[in-house]
Amino acid sequence: MGFELTAADYAEYIRRAYKKINENGDYVTELDLATGDGDHWSNLNMGFSKLNEKADELSKLNVSDEMKEIGKTMMSVIGGSSGVLYGSAYLAAAKALKGRETIDLNGLYDMLSAMLEAIVQRGQAKEGFKTMIDSLAPAVKTLKSCIDKGMDEIEICNMVKSAAEEGAENTKNMEAVRGRATYQADKGLGHLDPGAVTMSYQIAVLMDFVKEKIK
Ligand SMILES: [Mg+2]
Q: Ligand 1 centroid to 176 CA: how many Å?
């Protein structure tokens, strides 16, 4: 059992992630309008749309340069804080994957944990702040503990996906610490964080894709 994602595989993941994000525009924007200014989806969608256009080009790079290109594209195309955060995350992923031909299970952990660390540092945020970190951090933690237990890779993918989705769901019970929602009386309590939701989409699509690649 095992998988090795090539640059072409990751480019295919990007196409699927774009599709998932693109399909959920009305829902995510509605979530965002409850607590924010409603631009999260359109910003992120613009970034993934650009990456989707560049997917063929991305598939020809090595995995590290692919992540770097994704990061640079996100930084330049996605407006606001999301662009900087996703850009920094992918540049950190590029560093984590330097010198590797493919992304295996340990590579996936190295990559996702580097992305999490970059977002935490750049965003000056942590778990419980009602942000995308609340989906990514539980996913990374679950991935680590599953690897340590030597679990079956299909099971790992299922658990990481669930951790990301439950993490996003849990933002409903959180008060925002940063951003516009902090000015509201309820501090966003009772509402899902749109950034955590779109992060959970990406992790879910990635885990479903990895599952297909396990031989
Ligand atoms: Mg906004």
A: 13
Q: How far is the CA of 189 from the centre of ligand 1 (A)?
A: 17
Dump pLDDT digits (tens) for 68-93: 999 999 999 998 889 999 999 999 99
CA 195–ligand 1 middle distance (angstroms) = 9
Class of domain 7-213: mainly alpha
Cα distance between residue 204 and residue 57, in whole Å: 24
Q: Where are the domains of the chain?
A: 7-213
Q: What is the pLDDT of residues 122-176, one digit of tens each?
A: 999 999 999 999 999 999 999 999 999 999 999 999 999 999 999 999 999 999 9
